[in-house]
Each structure stands twice: as structure tokens, then as C-alpha cells.
Amino acid sequence: MKSVSPRSCARGFAVGVLLAACVVDVLFSGSDGTSVLPTASPVWPTLGVLLVGLAAVLWPEGRRPDRLTPQVRTAVPALVSALYSVGSLVTLRTNVFGPGEVVILLCLLFIAVRQCPPRAAWWCGALDVVALLLLPVRLLGPLDPGVLGFMVAALVLIALFAGLAVYLRTMDYRRTLAVSETRRAERVAIAADLHDFVAHHVTGILVQTQMARMMARTQPQDIDPVLAGIERAATEALASMRRTVGVLRDTGEDADRRPVGDLAGIADLTDGFASPVQRVTLHRDPAVSDDLPHEVQTSAFRVVQEALTNIRRHAADAAHVEVLLRDDAGRLVVSVADDGRGGTQLPAAAHGGGFGLVGLKERVTALGGELHAGPRGGVGWEVRAVIPAGKR
Asked: What residue ranges are annotated as transmembrane (predicted)?
């Protein structure tokens, strides 16, 4: 047996109440030109106004034609109702109204305020308000004291319906804005990931290409390992871009393709960084667990990656690079130190804009950690991050 959602039940109840109110309107008018109740008007004008309003309110969204925009839905029934009221003034004929038409105009006001474009919402809503306030003149005339009482009650209902519509429209706008900001932040994060990985690999390609050119003149027999390193770095850069494209396509199959790193990946970084003229040593404290939170492992990986990239850019003369991972009373300490003197042979355009460490500090600080980068006590440079390593 198919279950019915509470929302569907509430909608069905509201539609039933609206239709029952419209039946009351019809009972105030005769079905054949005579009156069912005293002082009633012929049924056809009233029935026509109600049918136009009901079509605007109840037409299913999935079957609604494109030309039936919120502006048309809210303006046309209100205009028909207002013309009927004005016609009563011109002909001096008594025409009744009932709760059905009142509810329809209030629903149209709600739709106008919530769904119409900002400029159209003003004049469509105003048209619905005018049509609602003109209703009593059909029955009482413009000078009857009862008109004022109806208008006061109508203004209260107008304020309630319009206020609710404004509140819901504001919530929709805030929700849309929050989704947009979230998507933008995700794309910025993905772009930063792509930049970090590709910059690391491309910088390695550049350094090894320079090395290959020198060895082609002096040691051509030893050039093959360098070319193999270039090939490996290019392959990894392409893989990083492919994973990022997989994330941007947002398919379930590619959901895990974001180019992230972990503590195990740091060993691959150091192995890939080592060269015949640069030795890299990785010291990992046995107390550092592989079960650290994902964001902590990723940040540690990025610290090492950015530090190694900067060594290639700014300290290509470094002969020894030391990478340290250790546990310090529940905090993960990540340190990358080199013995370079700032000598580099890279082109100026390959030195980077200095934003890598800024973004890295923001990432580490967001986790409650600290990042320091500066000269060592003797020779060289050190990047050191301390990250709270709360266990899962």
C-alpha cells in the first residue's frame, strides 16, 4: 500500500477548503439567473471569476504552460475581479462575494510576493491588494461603513500573507546564496589542490630537464634515469588533473578522485624528489599513527609538498633535505629542512607568487595548528607545522 506524505495530505486539505469556500460563493448567486439567497446576484459572473482564480492557483506545476508565468497567474485573475467590482459601481447593481474569492486573492498575493521577479512582484501584489479591497463595494457600495471594517480585516490578512511570503522568499534567497558560496568554496579548494599538485610536478620536470641538458653534454650515458623521472612527474601531473576533472563532473564513480594526500603519500613525495645531487631523508616517529583524521594527514602532506616545491624553486643548490614527522603530546609535528643557500637556476617566472605558504598557513590554522617558515640556525631554510592530531 502506497503511503501518503504529510505534505500531500496538507495540500489536499487546503485544496478542499478552497473548493468548499468557492461553493459558498456560488450559493450566494442563483444558478439560472434567480437568487438562491436574498440579495444575491446571477451566478455566471461570479462563477467566471472563481474559475479564472482557481485555474491560476491550482494548475499543476508540471502541466503548466510556459506562458503561464507567475506574473500572468497573479495579475489576470486580480484584474478580472477588480473589473467585476468596478462594473458593480458603474451599473449600480448589487453583486455579492464570498470567502472563496477572498482566499483566492490572498493566495495570488502570496504567489506574487514569493515567486514573481522583484519588480513584477510589486505591481502584481498591488493589483491583488486592490482587487481584494474592492470586493465589498459590490455589495455595500463605496460609502457604506461596513466597507471600512472589511478593509481593516483585509489589511490584516494581507499583512500576514505578504509577510509570510517575504519570509519564505528571504529564506529561499539565503539558501541559494549558501549553496552558491559552498560550491564556490569547493571549486576554490579543488583549484588550490590542482595548483599544488601540478606546480610540484611541473617544477620537478623543469629541474630535471635542466639537469638532463647538462648531463647530455657531460654524462650522456647517465641521462636515462633523469628522463625516466621527467616521464614519471609528467604522468603524475596528468593523473592529478584527471582526478580533479572527475571531481568537477561530480559522478558517484569519481567521488574519491580528489587529488588528496596522506601520510603514506609523503614517502612517495620524498622518493620522487630525490635526485643524484640532492639527498632526501624521511624520519617518521613510530608514534605517528596512520589512523589520524583525514584532514590532518592531508595538511601534513601539503606542508611537505609545498616545502619541497619551494626548495626546487629557491634552493636548488641544497644537497640534503630532511623531512620529519613526529608526535608531540597529541600534536603532529611536520618539519622540512634543507641546507641550501638560496641558489637557483630556475627562470624568474617559475619562482611562484608566494601564495603557496599563505594558503598553507590558512589550512593549518583552520585546524588549530601553527605554521612557521624561516631560516635555520645555521644554513638553509625550514618549514615547520604543528597540527592538533585528534584521533578518530
From this structure: 12-31, 43-60, 72-90, 96-113, 120-141, 147-168
Residues 69-87: tens digit of each pLDDT: 889 999 999 999 988 888 8
| pLDDT tens, residue by residue, 321-363 | 899 999 888 889 999 988 887 665 555 544 555 556 777 888 8
**Taking every pair of C-alpha atoms in the chain, what is the biggest distance, in angstroms?**
114
Task: State how far the alpha carbon of 256 is from the alpha carbons of 244, 250, 302, 366, in Å.
Answer: 10, 10, 18, 23
Whose CA is closest to 259, among 242, 276, 235? Answer: 242
Q: Degrees (nearest 5) of the Cα angle 300, 302, 303?
A: 65
Shortest CA distance to 320 belongs to which of 386, 376, 236? 376
Here the cell at position 99 is: 470567502
What is the per-residue DSSP string for 249-277? HT-GGGTT-S----HHHHHHHHHHH-BTT
Beta bridge partners of 279: 320
User: How far apart are the C-alpha atoms of 354 and 320, rounded to whole Å?
Assistant: 23
Alpha helices in the chain (DSSP H): 6-27, 43-58, 70-91, 99-115, 118-133, 136-140, 145-218, 223-249, 263-273, 294-314, 355-366
DSSP per-residue string spanning 106-130? HHHHHHHHHHS-HHHHHHHHHHHHH
Q: Which amino acid is at 312?
A: R
Q: What is the assigned CATH class of domain 278-392? A: alpha beta
pTM above 0.70, yes or no: no
CA distances to 170, 174, 263 from 269, rounded to whole Å, are 49, 43, 10
Question: Which of 202, 238, 188, 190 shows the shortest CA–CA distance to 349?
Answer: 202
Q: Exposure string (b/e) for 123-155, b if CB count within 10 Å is 16 or more?
A: ebbebbbebbbbbbbbbbeeeeeebeebbeebe
CA dist 348 and 263 (Å) reads 32
Question: Does the pLDDT of residue 311 top 90, yes or no?
Answer: no
pLDDT at 171 over 90: yes
What the block records as the C-alpha cell of 64 is 503548466
Of 62, 53, 141, nearest in space to 95 by CA: 141
